Amino acid sequence: MSTQGPDHETLPAPTVWPMVVALGLTLAMAALVTHAVVGIVGLALAVIGGTGWWFQVLPQEQVEHVPLRPLAERPAAVVAVSTPVERLLLGETAHRVRLPVEVQPLSAGVKGGLAGAVVMAVVALGYGVLVQRSPWYPINLLAGIAMPRMAQASLNELRVFDAPALVLGTIAHGVVSVLVGLLYAAMLPMLPRRHTLWGGLMAPLLWTSLLWALLGVINPTVSARIDWTWFVASQIAFGLVCGFVVARAHPLATLQTLPLQMRAGLHAPIDRERRDGR
Questions:
Q1: pLDDT confidence of 5, banded at 50, 70, 90?
Q2: Quick one: which of 106, 95, 87 has its CA closest to 258?
Q3: 49-58: long-range contacts at Cβ-Cβ below 8 A with a sequence spacing of 24 or more?
Q4: What distances in angstroms separate CA 73 from CA 6, 30, 68, 80, one per listed residue?
Q5: Could you tell me if residue 61 is inside a domain?
Q6: Cβ neighbours for 155, distance < 8 A, ≥ 6 positions apart
Q7: Which of 16, 83, 114, 246 has the most crowded Cβ, counting Cβ within 10 A?
Q8: Please, what is the Cα angle at 216 between 158 and 210, to 5 degrees?
Q9: Is 140 helix (H, G, I), strand (E, B) or coil?
Q10: What pLDDT sits at residue 4?
Q11: Are 23 and 132 in a shared domain?
Q12: Residue 77 covered by a domain
């Protein structure tokens, strides 16, 4: 508890140890899907952070003294003013509204994912033709994530046509793109404004960073063959197009407090008292 002094305020000293503990525990859990080395590093960080945090508060709490301005220089006391405030709207059956009030239709996510998949494929094809001198290199490399034969293939083998790799890579590319498009449709209404910034830049950079870290541990051979500059460019192109399509769709009002069977469009008996509002 802070104490008020004549010229200073005594507050707990700032410390970085809680963040170190949180990072360590996160890495320890990430070891379940990555590598044991990640878990060892995470546990070590958690122990180090916990020890540092312990000595930060025990046997004597570390504090700092924040100087206060003289009384004459301090702001005036806040004066309460009784002004009307904006009330939340009422949802269905007069319940308080729940946010978001409007959502993007799932069909917009599917369309945005497919449109983004086409644009991303064009960028990847440009990389294959301009850099690798082969239009088949990107799709073969994508198939190498799930096909051990393609993951161990030489550069010359990745540059030639391979029917199984083409089919597998196309299916994986389409499915993942649609799933990401559905995620855009679900998340964009809950994000602040400037959807182009969030969906076209921030989200692609975040998942590219995560994929780069995971591939470096799970499949370092494929990771070493990816040109990450072109990869980031293709992800940003996907995010811009997908986010634009989703944001341009006509939003749908949420059904707020309607029962599940009514929201799903099912025929179900309705209790007479509920129907009459009693």
A1: very low
A2: 95
A3: 49/17, 49/18, 49/19, 49/20, 49/21, 49/22, 49/23, 49/24, 50/17, 50/21, 52/15, 52/17, 52/20, 53/15, 53/17, 53/18, 53/20, 53/21, 56/13, 56/15, 56/17
A4: 14, 51, 10, 21
A5: yes
A6: 132, 225
A7: 246
A8: 110
A9: helix
A10: 47
A11: no
A12: no
Angle subtended by helix axes 106-130 and 163-187, to nearest 10:
140
Q: pLDDT at position 44, please?
A: 92
- Looking at the fold, whether 22 and 125 belong to one and the same domain comes out as no
Question: What is residue 96's DSSP assignment?
Answer: B
pLDDT reported for residue 3: 46
Domain carrying residue 36: 3-72
42, 24 in Cβ contact below 8 A? Answer: yes
Q: What is the pLDDT of residues 26-66, one digit of tens each?
A: 999 998 888 888 889 999 999 999 998 898 888 888 888 88
Nearest-angstrom CA–CA distance, 146 and 168? 8
Overall pTM > 0.85: no
